[in-house]
Amino acid sequence: MIDANNEVKFSVRLLKSVFSIYLVLFLSACATIDPKPFVQFNNTANELTSIDAIIGDHGSTLKQKDMLSIATDPNLFSHFALEFNANNPYQYKYKFTATEEPLFIKLDRFQQGLNELNSTFIKYTGLLVKLSGNEIANNADFETLADDLNTNAKNALVSLGKKPDAANLALFSTLASTAAQAYINNKKKIHLEEILVANQPLVNGFVDQARVALSILAVDLQVSYDLQQRLFLNDWLQASAVTDKETLTEKRYKNNEVMIKTLQMLEALDKSYIVLAQTHKDLARNIENNGFSANNLLIQIEYVKKRYEDLKKANETASTQ
């Protein structure tokens, strides 16, 4: 004979067991997210600001030669003035054409774009920190932050002279925004992974834009170098005294050293953006196993700084000629 009371007790125990299993699974999915990997990524990305001034500093060493050209060319001097945008009282540009723009001004504009680019990415990593730390209370707040971020991304690329399709200017995709809203509502770790995975193509595209800008800058610097080399050769051919030829040879050597160190620095900077994209990808892969590290990015940024110090010394040596 079946004991009804025992059957009820067994059913209750079974129900409790099943409920406990589901509760464990639910809590695992909704467990408090460890924001430390996101904070580490954000802190390391902030190191990018330490290399923002590098390009501009190098540009200042080229200014003296460019200013001499402007001072002796009526056309260049007439274009050495600002023109303003009637629709934006804060916007300005020089009147130089693309082909006559002095290199030091181009480098200054490039530095501004690089500053904005790095600043935008830092804001992006900061937004990830806010999400992982549950600092964003609702979807409306997130949308405001994401919209501001995407606007900054567009401005950064425009400053770098880029005019890509507006759809490719975002750093938060529609898919990632949907995942972010799901995370805000449910606090499930899987949604944070979805954000990073959905945004990886945009991060890659953003990095590609920066790398293309760097390669264009390298070519511009090579054009300036070639011009200087032709001047050296012309002066050398006209020199009659051996001591004059020796002096020109030494100047040419120092000029070569500056160019070599410049290309080494730009290459190091280029690689830092590659590592930046890879670090973002690694973050998505390692949320679960807590194996994330941004050390490779930090090491690469330190390498850029070292290459800049080498260039700085080469510039100082060349300036004494």
Can you summarize this structure?
With 321 residues, this protein is mainly α. The protein has ten helices and two strands.
Give an account of the 3D structure.
The chain is mainly alpha-helical and 321 residues long. It has two domains: 1-30; 34-319, no CATH class. It is built from ten helices and two strands, in the order H-H-H-H-E-E-H-H-H-H-H-H. It has a two-stranded antiparallel ribbon with strand order 1-2. Helix 2 packs antiparallel against helix 9 and helix 3 (53-71) runs antiparallel to helix 5 (103-132). The radius of gyration is 28 Å and the shape is elongated. The protein starts with a helix and ends with a helix. The model is unreliable at 6-31 (pLDDT under 50).
What labels would you give this structure?
single chain, 321 residues, mainly alpha, 3% strand
- Beta-strand percentage range: under 5%
Figure out the total of helices.
Answer: 10
Strand order of the largest sheet: 1-2
Described by strand count, sense and barrel closure, the largest sheet is: 2 strands, antiparallel
Assign a percent range to the helix content: over 70%
Tell me the structural class: mainly alpha
Can you count the beta strands?
A: 2
Extract low-pLDDT stretches: 6-31
Overall pLDDT, averaged? 80
What general form does the structure show? elongated
Could you give the order of the helices and strands? HHHHEEHHHHHH
Radius of gyration: 28 Å
* N- to C-terminal distance: 109 Å
Question: How many domain regions?
Answer: 2
